[in-house]
Amino acid sequence: MFHLRTCAAKLRPLTASQTVKTFSQNRPAAARTFQQIRCYSAPVAAEPFLSGTSSNYVEEMYCAWLENPKSVHKSWDIFFRNTNAGAPPGTAYQSPLPLSRGSLAAVAHAQSLVEAQPNVDKLVEDHLAVQSLIRAYQVRGHHIAKLDPLGISCVNFDDAPVTVSSNVGFYGLDESDLDKVFHLPTTTFIGGQESALPLREIIRRLEMAYCQHIGVEFMFINDLEQCQWIRQKFETPGIMQFTNEEKRTLLARLVRSTRFEEFLQRKWSSEKRFGLEGCEVLIPALKTIIDKSSENGVDYVIMGMPHRYGRLNVLANVIRKELEQIFCQFDSKLEAADEGSGDVKYHLGMYHRRINRVTDRNITLSLVANPSHLEAADPVVMGKTKAEQFYCGDTEGKKVMSILLHGDAAFAGQGIVYETFHLSDLPSYTTHGTVHVVVNNQIGFTTDPRMARSSPYPTDVARVVNAPIFHVNSDDPEAVMYVCKVAAEWRSTFHKDVVVDLVCYRRNGHNEMDEPMFTQPLMYKQIRKQKPVLQKYAEVLVSQGVVNQPEYEEEISKYDKICEEAFARSKDEKILHIKHWLDSPWPGFFTLDGQPRSMSCPSTGLTEDILTHIGNVASSVPVENFTIHGGLSRILKTRGEMVKNRTVDWALAEYMAFGSLLKEGIHIRLSGQDVERGTFSHRHHVLHDQNVDKRTCIPMNHLWPNQAPYTVCNSSLSEYGVLGFELGFAMASPNALVLWEAQFGDFHNTAQCIIDQFICPGQAKWVRQNGIVLLLPHGMEGMGPEHSSARPERFLQMCNDDPDVLPVSNTGPVRTASIGFLLLQAQKCRLIIFTPKSLLRHPEARSSFDEMLPGTHFQRVIPEDGPAAQNPENVKRLLFCTGKVYYDLTRERKARDMVGQVAITRIEQLSPFPFDLLLKEVQKYPNAELAWCQEEHKNQGYYDYVKPRLRTTISRAKPVWYAGRDPAAAPATGNKKTHLTELQRLLDTAFDLDVFKNFS
């Protein structure tokens, strides 16, 4: 195990400054009180009863009192209470009340004890010293625990670790005190039924609890009940006991884990599989967590893990995927039967419902597919777990839970781990506790921890959410099983995160064909000598008489036969079905009465009564005695006026879209930074009472009786983690609309991994259906490089339609005019919507109710409908565009008096590209030059995507000119004057024929 430096390995109590810091964080008056107490240890004590008492022990007594006031004598309790209340020195101590006549005998007895033992101060000091010793073990015992199965501790900078038994002098004790009996404080359970023990036995029991094969980090938790719970689980004598049946089950699971890897190695020795050798105990560990959780009522476990650390083994022996389906993945001659690219076998996921044989309860297991980006699946798993809890009404996480597996280097090195932890207790994101299992093979890729992290443990990031961390030597299977049981019980009891750190090693290199001796020669010399954990544990059980050698060998033969039979069946597979690896099925969604469901969409316009009702709710406060902000009152009044005038802006159209879907029973979840109010103060879906803290109102949830719920939640300041979470949430059900809105469109940059690895190729790689919608504010408005472009070119580059092939029929589904149906389509395909900024309040960017009534449809292309369309032969120029630039072009066209000479066509749906509708537009204006206009730079935006498709549409009969900004490295200028100059040049190019051709 990699340990700390010498100073960290020694078991020492908190220093005075550390104590002040610790308690000043938890109790407002603690620092002041502590300084008062310290003054009592001056040569002339301020309190007579403290005379001759060491300040160290007063401080320790104060620490104990803060943790539990009943753990100290009543006189100390009164003294500390008075001091906390601000009593000046000399007045805090109060003499005990006079005793009754019946207590005189007790007083006489106490006096005789004092006379018999005049050195009472020494006795008190010794007991306080023992309390300090116990606390030191609880705080720092894990630093000298025997956690490393290799025993090399190559990050330990000590020449020789200091042991506690030789360091008792530090606490004011000596060797002669080892046989003295000391009263045990209430903050320890090492005594069991005994309230006092000899010091030697106290030390022995503390070492057994905290310094063997389990190291416990928990004393940073600021909840006394939780600390006491953990102490009881590890300090109680004899608590870690297993029956012979449990030991035999553990051995059988180790056999399956080990022999599975050995089978793959024999059959496909030159194939990468990223096996589990060195941490074979992971499989029984996961099964123990699942067994205990099932026993506590959980019936659905959602898991995430990297491609490394035995993913195939987890699929085979935990999820229980058919072995033949795994083995046929190794056959390079098999052809895929499903559309898409597929993925390597150690990235794929699985969904399976089966009987848990230990509890005889049904349990559903899902392993989420994950790319090579190791921890990228963490927030996805959390989001999917949250969704499953939401849809089954599991508000406390008692039925659905998540397990996340991590590698040690990735756990410490990847920021998404930190982002995911910080979602764990947020009301709209909590999954009520996740069990994190770290496969700590003490090496990341080819880098040892001294170069890979700055913290002593890879798990230190978990301390930010007060998650207990259980380090355990993976070569002690029973210790691992016990820790996993405790972790599952912790999650069930407190519904908070917990970490199990399996300290192990990696028998092979970075993969099965890698040579690890290049970079870690000393470690791998030791590994070559290391006896496998299965062999070691089998020898232990044979020596204990739990099993005999023939029984052990029979268990091995039985599983080997299972693997061989599955291998033979895998040869009969003619084609490879990736659908067998689907981790989030949507049963029944793509079929209707046994037939494929049509993906085309009828009109979803709304009646005027419905539009008016939603608009009226959107412009009111449906809760009595609720005070809103004065500025918001004006916004709601403006909305009401729009409803009366039968018009909508973007915000009101969005409101009506959401409201109509809620009426149809479609759950909606909108998440992101500032989404409750809207980044541009346009949405206001959550109203806040100006006089009552935390009192809010969501009018959208007051639209209809029996409507679906609307969840709108401001997120943490995270894009990567939150987008991954929402992707996972959308994965759970097709009958929901899940949206993530970026504060500004380009802020999705830091979530690019989720877009590139999950959203774009997820269907092709994993047959994973997902309806996530991204709302990305976009527009060049002189706000600088980081608040302008949502980088549409990146998303268009990911689209897989062929720019050189003109489709025979319409390439995209028919969609309706209502934005509501456009969003409803998100249940069937992923949507990237570039939302407006300045157009949110632009008077020309409003629509009439008439465009949203029954019979209306979404227009993939909005053609010219002005004078130019009345006389198409006279049109000299046909401009194609999309987005905000349309309003700049129409304004400039009017200013130049070219309304009849220039036609402007808007492309509202860029992908799938509307070849058919654009061909009609080109044919309508036979004498017109063609140009694509955009406000983005030429190497950005839509031009590279649109140009070849326009040329294919017209069979290259005409040139397609470009009007827009020059190529640039930055998305936009940060200078307002330069921005306006660039915009004017764009407009000059679009409307001046000579500039038009030369510039293009």
TrEMBL record:
UniProt-listed NCBIfam families: 2oxo_dh_E1, PRK09404.1, PRK12270.1
The record describes the protein's role as:
2-oxoglutarate dehydrogenase (E1-like) component of the 2-oxoglutarate dehydrogenase multienzyme complex (OGDHC) which mediates the decarboxylation of alpha-ketoglutarate in the tricarboxylic acid cycle. The OGDHC complex catalyzes the overall conversion of 2-oxoglutarate to succinyl-CoA and CO(2) while reducing NAD(+) to NADH. The OGDHC complex is mainly active in the mitochondrion. Involved in the inhibition of cell proliferation and in apoptosis.
Question: Can you say what this protein is called?
Answer: 2-oxoglutarate dehydrogenase complex component E1
Give the reaction(s) catalysed. Answer: N(6)-[(R)-lipoyl]-L-lysyl-[protein] + 2-oxoglutarate + H(+) = N(6)-[(R)-S(8)-succinyldihydrolipoyl]-L-lysyl-[protein] + CO2
Q: What are the annotated GO cellular component locations? A: mitochondrial matrix; nucleus; oxoglutarate dehydrogenase complex
Q: Where in the cell is it found?
A: Mitochondrion matrix; Nucleus
Entries under InterPro entries matching the protein: 2-oxogl_dehyd_N (IPR032106), 2oxoglutarate_DH_E1 (IPR011603), DH_E1 (IPR001017), KGD_C_sf (IPR042179), ODO-1/KGD_C (IPR031717), THDP-binding (IPR029061), Transketolase-like_Pyr-bd (IPR005475)
Summarize subunit and interaction data from the UniProt record for this chain. Answer: The OGDHC complex comprises multiple copies of three catalytic enzyme components, the 2-oxoglutarate dehydrogenase (OGDH/E1), the dihydrolipoamide dehydrogenase (DLST/E2) and the dihydrolipoamide dehydrogenase (DLD/E3). OGDHL/E1-like isoenzyme may replace OGDH in the OGDHC complex in the brain. The presence of either ODGH/E1 or ODGHL/E1-like isoenzyme in the complex may depend on its tissular distribution.
Q: Which family does it belong to?
A: Belongs to the alpha-ketoglutarate dehydrogenase family.
Presence of keyword Repressor: no
* GO terms for MF: metal ion binding; oxoglutarate dehydrogenase (succinyl-transferring) activity; thiamine pyrophosphate binding
Its Gene Ontology biological processes?
glycolytic process; tricarboxylic acid cycle
Q: Which SMART domains match?
A: Transket_pyr
Arranged from A to Z, the UniProt key words for this protein are:
Calcium, Glycolysis, Isopeptide bond, Magnesium, Metal-binding, Mitochondrion, Nucleus, Oxidoreductase, Thiamine pyrophosphate, Transit peptide, Ubl conjugation
Q: Which Pfam families match?
A: 2-oxogl_dehyd_N, E1_dh, OxoGdeHyase_C, Transket_pyr
Q: What is its EC number?
A: 1.2.4.2
Q: Where does the record place the Transketolase-like pyrimidine-binding domain? A: 648-842
Q: Which cofactor does it need?
A: thiamine diphosphate; Mg(2+)
Q: Is Transmembrane helix tagged as a keyword? A: no
